[in-house]
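Run folding on both entries below.
>entry_1
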Amino acid sequence: MAVIAITHEKKSDFFKNILEIKLKGVEVYDMPSLYEELSGKVPVMHIRDSWFLNVSFSGIKKNIYTQKIERFIDISLCLSGLIITLPIILITSVLTKLGSKGKIFYIQERVGLNGKCFKLIKFRSMIVDAEAEGATWAIEGDSRITKVGKIIRKLRIDEIPQLWNVLKGDLSLIGPRPERPEFVSTLEKEIPYYSVRHSVKPGITGWAQVNYRYGASKKDTFEKLQYDLYYIKNKSLLLDIVILIKTVKVVLLGSGAR
């Protein structure tokens, strides 16, 4: 097996040599493809614009029938989820209201498909006016999180109201997590190909969420983007099932929450 790990432009003689060894039965991989196969993520710093021209993105290339089937699955699972979690929703609503002053739900603007913003709904897990001084990522042991908030974040219960966003069509069950516009404007300037995430509908859970910890920095965001690109490129029903199974494991173990 031979691996091509050259990032600069390749000369014609190079391709002739590659062809010769391929005709001798040697498997030839380019480094990004091998890295993707082994790690489950796309090496953003080792691809160029031309890479996007030579690969197929199954998450973007969808016909009207595929879109309708995916929408039907989203709505069916979402309605089932709302029915199953109704007791949890009622109990959490009461505890949130009694635990601290403020509204039960927290509405936050996020960036969705094609860069369009929408209102994402979650159970409130922080004190009122937690971001009075500006938008910031949650950190380990964040003092803004309420006592009830710590529990519902740990168990991912605060995410349940997002099923309403799925019914509205803002979210899918699975896809890249939508980020806040205050962060997106900066991240698009500092991280290559970050805007590609907006070429598919965002989700409640995703490939990055089940493979990487909670992101609270630009470095974390960069790592999660590599997983998001892998998902967009390789999206399939089987991959979605794998993500759902891994999501259940993450929720049961309570890992990665802040």
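>entry_2
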Amino acid sequence: MIDKKELEKMFEFHGHKCWASTLGFRAGLIALNKLGAKRIKSRGLYAVVETGYAHGAVCFLDGLQYVTGCTVGKAAILWKPRGKLAFTLIDAKQGKQIRIAYKFNPEIRERIANTQFMKKRAQGIPPHEIPDEEAWEAVNIILSASEEELFVIGEVESTDFIPPEEILGAQQCEICGEWVSLPYIRILGPKKVCIDCAGYEEGFEKGFEGV
């Protein structure tokens, strides 16, 4: 049973109502239940997420972050960008993990595509400008479908995952003067500087690949 009050809080966190964030919310709940885990407040759970960086259904990730507590700010999101609505939730304390992926279901896909919400999104209308009742039409498709219709749910497996260490050290770049975490300091002659001041050319996504 989905707690509608929590779902509404997730929409507030996300910024708008949509089917993809609802899907992430449901998937996260399933993963927590299968692992016998609870939403984290600091550390213990980690999500290896397979969403990409800019595809239209990446809202999935906000639903997942909200319900599991695995947020970017807790360093509990590890990136494995594949453009899929899929993730592996890892319980480091129990040494267990489970992978869940959105199933390619033609019937569900067609029903969502035929909603006014998706038709307006296809026209370039921002989701927050679409009336709530139209957004709920798409959301309710996800809420009313069974787990089997929506997801490929893997088995709970053991894992030897080692959580990334928390890095607290930082220092000032000796050129621009900005605060820099120690792993991102580079040596330029006699100076310790940030990547930008060192002149590195680096793709945006390189620092976010995770595993």
